[in-house]
Amino acid sequence: MTNPTAHTERRYQSGFGNEYASEAVAGALPQGRNNPQRAPFDLYTELLSGTAFTAPRHENRRSWLYRRQPSVVSGRYQPYAQAHWTTGAGREIALPPEPLRWHPMPLEGGAAAADFIDGMHTIAANGDAESQVGIGSLMYLAGRSMDQRAFVNADGEMLVVPQQGRLVITTELGVLDVKPGEIALLPRGMAFKVALPDGLSRGYVCENYGAHFRLPELGPIGSNGLANARDFQAPVAAFEDDGGAYELVKKFGGRFWKAPARQSPFNVVAWHGNLAPVKYDTANFMVIGSISFDHPDPSIFTVLTSPSDTPGTANCDFVIFPPRWMVMENTFRPPWFHRNLMSEFMGLVLGEYDAKPGGFKPGGASLHNCMVPHGPDEEAFDKATHADLKPHKLDNTLAFMFESRYRFIPTDFALKSPALDTDYADCWAGLKDQFKP
After folding, report:
1. CA-CA distance, 127 to 209, in Å (whole number)?
2. Closest CA to 289 of 417, 156, 143, 394
3. Domain segments of the chain: what residues?
4. What is the mean pLDDT of residues 224-253?
5. N or C: which end of the chain has fewer CB within 10 A?
C-alpha cells in the first residue's frame, strides 16, 4: 500500500452525507476545479453519480474520484454463477399469510470456502431492481476473504449488519473496519472487497433498490435524538500501489458477471463529494421512549430510512432495538400483539429479544408480512402481565428490522432450508381465552 497508515489505523471522517474531502498523497486533490485539464500527478478524473444530475441539491449524491486508472479499464464481462443471491420478489411462490422464522443459518460446511459474495443468500425480497423499488433481505455465510476479487452492485446500495465476525471492507474511497454492533452502508456502483480477520462470519444485508437511505426527520423530537449524523464515519483515501490482477464481479439487472482486470480497482488517490461508504456504531443511538405509561410505535427506533413516493410510508426503514431502560407504569412492556400495513423482516445480532426470549436466537430471522398477526410468545406474555413493574434495563441485546411497505416473498432456498422453524406458530398455541366478565 502506498498509504499504509490509512489502512492500518482505519482513519475516518465524521458525518452522514457530508461534503467530504480526502487525499492519500498531499496535493492529489485539485483545488477550485473538479475536472482540470490535467489532474495533479496525472491522475484520471472520474465522477460517480448516485442520483440523477438534476436531483434537488439536498438530495443529490455524487463524488469526484482522482485515480491512477479509470474504472473503464477492464476485460470483457462473462456470466458468473451465484445461485443463492436473487433479486426482487419471486412471483412463482404462493405464500400463505403466516409468520415465518428461521433458526441461525449454520456456518459449517460450504460456508468455510465461500467469500462474502459467494456466501450471500437471499432470504426474502420485494419490489424490482429495474423499477428501483423494494429491497432484498439477505444473509452472508462466509469463511474466506476476498483477496484479488472486487464486487460492484449496480442494482442497489447495501446495508451490512455483521452478526458474527469482524469485516474489513476495502472500498474505492478507503477502508472500513466493521464489527458486530456496527453497520456499514455501501453505495450502489462502488467497488469493494471484504476481508474476514476473524474467520467464519455471518450477518445480514439489506439490498436497497429504492431511494438512498438517509436519516429520518425528527419532527416533535426536535433537533437531537436517534442517530446523529456526526456518528457516521466515512473512510479517508487509501489506495493499493500494486495490487496485481483482479477479478471483477458485478451484479447488474439481477444477474452476475465477471471480468479480468490487470490492476487493482482500489486505485483512488484522492476524492471529494457526498457519496461515500460509511459505518455507524449502534451504541451511539440515542434511544427515546416513554417515561410515564404506554410506549411509542417502533418507528421511534429508526436509524435510517429509504423513502417511497408515498410520504411517511417507507420503501425501507432500518430499525434497531438496542439496550434501553424500561420504566413505564401499568404498561405491557414488550411489543403488543399487532397487524401492520408494513412488512417486517427481523434479525437478532446478540442477546435476547424481549418478545421471544427462547425461540429467537442470534443469527436467526423472522418474517411478518403485511397484516399477518404477530407479537410476544406465551412465555413473554405471561412474564409481562405478572411482572412487578420496577424500572429495569434491557441489556446485552441488539435486534433490528428491515421494514418495508412492500410484501416480502421468501426465496425457494429459504423455504427449503433446514433452518426454517416449522413449529414457529406453536409459540402462541398456549394463549388461552382468559375472559373473566
Report:
1. 8
2. 394
3. 284-422
4. 94
5. C
CA 160 to chain centre: 3
Check the CA dihedral 108-112-113-119 and report its sign: positive
Q: How far is CA 114 from CA 173, 176, 243, 406, in A?
A: 25, 21, 21, 31
CA neighbor of 369 nearest in space, from 22, 128, 124 = 124
Residues with catalytic annotation? 295
Question: Could you tell me the end-to-end alpha-carbon distance of the chain, in angstroms, rounded to an integer?
Answer: 75
Q: Is the pTM of this model over 0.90?
A: yes
The length of the chain is 437
The CATH number, out of the four listed (3.40.50.11540, 2.60.120.10, 3.40.50.2300, 3.40.30.10), of the domain defined by the range 284-422: 2.60.120.10
Buried (b) or exposed (e) across 33-54, using 16+ Cβ within 10 A? eeeeeebbeebbbbebebeeee
Q: Please name the residues in contact with 435: beta carbons below 8 A apart, sequence gap of 6 or more.
A: none
Tell me the pLDDT tens digit for each residue of 19-77: 999 999 999 999 999 999 999 999 999 999 999 999 999 999 999 999 999 999 999 99
